[in-house]
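Researcher: Please predict.
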Amino acid sequence: MLRRLDIKGFALIDELSLPFHAGLTVLTGETGAGKSIIVDALQSVLGEKADTAIIRSGEKSAVIGGVFRIPETIYDLVESGSDGELSVKREIPMEGRSRAFVNGSPIPLSRLRTLGDGLVDLHGQHEHQALLRVAAHLQALDAFAGLEETRARHEETFRRKADISRKISHIEEKGRESLARKDYLSFVVQELHAASIGDDEEDLLRAEEKVLVSAGKLQSAAATVLENIYQSDESLADGVGGAASSLRGFLDIDARLGEIVEFLDNSRAQLEEAAHLLREYTGMVQADPQRLEMVSDRLALIEDLKRKYGPTVNDVLAFHQSATKELDEIETGRESEDVLRAEEDRLGDMLVKSARELSADRRAAASRLEKMVLGELADLAMERVRFKVDFEEAPHFEKGTDLVEFLISTNPGEPLMPLRKVASGGELSRVMLALKTILAHTDEVPTLVFDEVDSGIGGRTAGILGKKLRKISGHHQVLCITHLAPVAACADRHIMVEKVEHGGRVVIRARYLDGDERIGELARMIGGMELTEGILNSAREMLKESNG
């Protein structure tokens, strides 16, 4: 809801601050007084295009500010203040680009316009009519039919199906890219699995290869040492044993020789152990050409795998692990694609069913809406108008199978045409008023502005128009520019707009009227500038009846 509008340096407005309230507020004044300029300023603060020509002569910029209490429907678009209010400012400089701010922070005009669509719905000149957006027609029909939740569920199903379709496309694309990769990975995994390399196998094989290559030399060396220990004429074992025996005979003379004898005895025992080990060693180390060939071939295989998949055996093993994992993922991707396709088909069936149900409900509601709109328009002096909700098939299922557009013929014999092509500003405002009257309970935009809605009507119809506006104001804040006293008399609050001379220049002033001032303005609207007692009494009676 609009709480306040501050305007400075805009057209003929030098400086103006207007508070606004809930209910129906009318703006009146003589033709050319500047009522529409206030509406233009409201449009500008909500992001509409603004030319530097609107800057007041002598000013460097125009600045418009608005304070709104925001509805829940646009909470996700912007953060409000702690009191739920939103402060919007638009600066239009004579030089440079215009700037917009929300709660003191800069905001792009495109986002401000989106925000504005959720705050204010303006009905007047064609370029500002929400009703001219064909997408709004389907929304209005669904609101009338009470199908918004049903459509929201359908849209959510559509989004889920679209998301799954994107995932399937991604998997298919990856599948095409990974087809050659899969063949390669399969070969790698099979090759490395068949090789079955151990992490320490290379070191063990290289050690074994050295022994096998030198088996003859190793055996010869072992035999020579063994002969030196035992089998030669001057064997080491005999020499050490003899030395120990010689010294042992002198132990009773010098006991200190005991340590040496013990050392020599130990040495002989160690030589005997060494000889035992050498005999075992010569039995183990045998020349084995077949085994040597097998070891050499295995090492050659390991070298080949290292050349292909990594400089070390650990790298080869890591590559085997990663290739196996990637291959599993490709196979799993195929399985997940099957699951996704099944879900895609299920959601597709749901969409077809819900789209049929939506379409049937919409067509039934369209017939009721047509009759109700025609009834409302007849009340507003548009008795000979024709109105139709036209259906065409939508190219996709996002909102169902229906493309909906409101068609109208305002003159007998003329074909039904889209609203934007045939309706004048006043006619369009009355069509919107008819729809707003019917949809008052469901429309979520808090503030409605009507300009030209009373164009071409008068008398009893004007009173009906005022009562319809007042009825809508029970659910929305309504601002209405009017030239008709019966409409103005129905308002909760009355603003008079006028041009006055100030400091040698013409400026626009606006103020709330009450009591006799309001009666005087209503009388002027009834009878012009000559206010007789009879006209004043008529104004009093009109105000009394409208608020009775």
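Model: Residues 174-331 form one domain.
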